[in-house]
Amino acid sequence: MDDVSRTFTIGELARRTGLAVKTIRFYSDEGLLPPTDRTPSGYRLYDARSLARLELIRTLRELGLGLAEITQVLASETTVPRLAARHVAALDEQIHRLRLRRAVLRAVVKRESELEEVKLMNKLASMSDDERARLVDEFWTEMTEGLEVDSGFYDRMRSAKPTLPDDPSPEQVEAWVEFAELIQDPAYRQAVRSMSERHAEVRAAGINPQPLPVHQEKLHSWADRAQALRDAGTPPSSKAAQKLAGELERAAVGLTRPELADRIEQHNDARAERYWQLLGIMNGWPPIPSRADGMAYLVSALRG
């Protein structure tokens, strides 16, 4: 007798499929695998279609579908692709959470974090991109509330949002934790608010609120050259440093050296620079070099 026309006991199904007898019996009791016949002694029998049905049930169970969902599929109340799409979405979310958890644990190992920091890191890492963006929006709203500032400039500042990838590195998780701590630090918030107030004041007076009336790339070039002098141990009063200060003075027409020094110093906050470096780490931007020390050296050279 071929397999198409023959019948099988639960034991034979178990041998053919590798499933336990009690598992097959459970599926049968739950109505997923109704017997096609019974022996004179009352033992359940199953045909070739039952065997195929059992293989389908096993496959769907291995994919994570519940008994109720499998019942719907077998009763043609839904389709496998529809259920699969639902499970893919759920698995994607679960994988995302597991990746974040792994990154947090790696960061904990790297930082040798204590319990309170572990709690904070886990809480911050679990936030969504929308929640992270909301923190940034709230920060810049407080920094400019009630002030007549250059809306275009501050919109650009506000538009840069932290976005962690689906599989963040420990460095990106650490960057987000440090970033969140930074924008919630009262001292830093006060410093940025004071900058915004000065920005509004000089703008109201018709003065360019930027630190120097030169292109940003040029200012960065001066800062990098100043950093090189500083790293070489060259004092700000040296001929080379004073030559650099003279270039600055000639480029910033109408500003004296003390005025230039004051402007640069007002805008030269290492924490503000760190703000952008952390955003760069989270968002996968090219590394942002540190220029705070170079700017401080320029200030000393201008006052030298």
From TrEMBL:
One GO MF term: DNA-binding transcription factor activity
Alphabetical list of Pfam families matching this protein: MerR_1
PANTHER family: HTH MERR-TYPE DOMAIN-CONTAINING PROTEIN, REDOX-CYCLING DRUG-SENSING TRANSCRIPTIONAL ACTIVATOR SOXR
The UniProt record lists the keyword Amino-acid biosynthesis: no
InterPro entries reported in the protein's UniProt record: DNA-bd_dom_put_sf, MerR-type_HTH_dom, MerR_fam
Lineage: superkingdom: Bacteria
Keywords: DNA-binding
Organism: Amycolatopsis acidicola
Xref: SUPFAM superfamilies: Putative DNA-binding domain
HTH merR-type domain mapped to chain residues: 7-76
Record lineage: Bacteria, Bacillati, Actinomycetota, Actinomycetes, Pseudonocardiales
Record-given protein name: MerR family transcriptional regulator
